[in-house]
Design a protein that fits this description.
- With 171 residues, this protein is mainly alpha-helical.
- Helices cover 85% and strands 0% of the residues.
- The radius of gyration is 19 Å and the shape is globular.
- The two termini are 28 Å apart.
- The mean pLDDT is 91.
């Protein structure tokens, strides 16, 4: 099965699962790094999650996603890769993680009020690399397979419904 979104409905579901899980884990990771394991940790994670999710979905659908796909298909994906959908998925996933870590690290620093002062580039670089070392394996090993698994089930259900409808039309 394809395991890549083929229409708007699949894209929305895929993005919701992907962004929902990635933002939750990355929010938990960043809040824990900043606060440590404290009494208010769970509330801090839950309070930061909605805005982070909103920003991530907007960036994914309108900025990072389109750029990552354009770059992948224009400069990286070759004829060999086109025959293996998994390679296309991995390529786009890596580009998406790079783009989202770049944007969401900046978002996180802005939300925490760390965009002023002479140390802003060092803070950004530190945040970016610490986010990348968690986000890339998280996406490739855990969240990506979960999202593609749900998408595959959705695509199979759609295919079954369409074939059943076609059989009914023939009768």
């Amino acid at each position: 099965m394809n395991r890549m979104p083929r229409n708007l409905k699949e894209e929305v579901v895929f993005t919701a699962i992907m962004a929902g899980l990635m933002v939750f884990v990355m929010t938990a990771y960043n809040v824990t790094l900043a606060q440590g394991f404290s009494n208010g940790l769970v509330m801090a994670i839950l309070s930061g999650y909605p805005l982070g999710l909103f920003v991530a979905i907007i960036l994914d659908l309108l900025v990072v996603g389109p750029i990552a796909k354009r770059l992948a298909f224009k400069y990286i994906i070759n004829d060999y890769m086109r025959k293996r959908v998994v390679l296309i998925g991995i390529t786009i996933s890596v580009l998406m993680v790079l783009g989202m870590v770049t944007c969401m690290s900046l978002f996180g620093i802005a939300v925490e009020g760390e965009l002023s002062g002479s140390h802003v580039l060092a803070t950004y670089g530190h945040t970016w690399i610490f986010n990348l070392i968690v986000a890339l394996p998280l996406q490739l090993i855990i969240v990506g397979p979960i999202a593609r698994g749900v998408l595959g089930k959705m695509q199979r259900a759609t295919a079954n419904t369409e074939s059943a409808a076609a059989m009914n039309e023939e009768d």
